[in-house]
Amino acid sequence: MVKINFELSEDGKVATVTCPEKNKTVYTISKDLSGFIFYDISIDKGLLPKELAGKFSGIYNARLILENYLRAVKESKAVRRDNVGERVMKEMANESESNTKGN
Fold first, then answer.
1. To the nearest 5 percent, what fractions of the chain are helix, strand and coil?
2. Are both 68 and 82 inside the same structural domain?
3. Secondary structure class of 82 (helix, strand, coil)
4. Are 3 and 49 contained in the same domain?
5. CB-CB neighbours of 19 under 10 Å
């Protein structure tokens, strides 16, 4: 199960969504600037994936689409690189501990 962090603003008009297990992008669901009832999804960097483009009739609908997208998407290269780095550092720490105990 993928952990998705969803934070709704106090006024209920803006939501911030992150999924650190899959990518480092911060997704924002906010009211459309047209003045109608629609909501948009935006990201903090890069281009918005075409699966997330469009207008949504509420924060809940946008959240469902975003959660489905995050569950289906692969890990980003940055997250994968961080995970490999952590694993290598743990292995090096374990190896150094076993070397010091062996002496």
1. 40, 20, 40
2. no
3. helix
4. yes
5. 24
- Average pLDDT per consecutive 10 residues, the chain (103 residues; last block may be shorter): 89 91 91 87 92 92 94 85 84 77 61
> Is 83 found in the same domain as 62?
no
User: Which range of residues forms the domain containing residue 82?
Assistant: 76-103
Helix (H/G/I), strand (E/B), else coil: 32: coil
User: What per-residue confidence (pLDDT) applies to 102?
Assistant: 60
Q: Are residues 60 and 99 in the same domain?
A: no
Q: Are 53 and 69 contacting, i.e. CB atoms less than 8 angstroms apart? A: no
Distances in Å between the alpha carbon of 30 and those of 14, 36, 41?
Answer: 5, 12, 7
As for how many domains the chain has, the answer is 2
pLDDT (0 to 100) of residue 27: 95
Do residues 62 and 89 both lie within one domain? no
| pLDDT recorded at residue 63 | 93
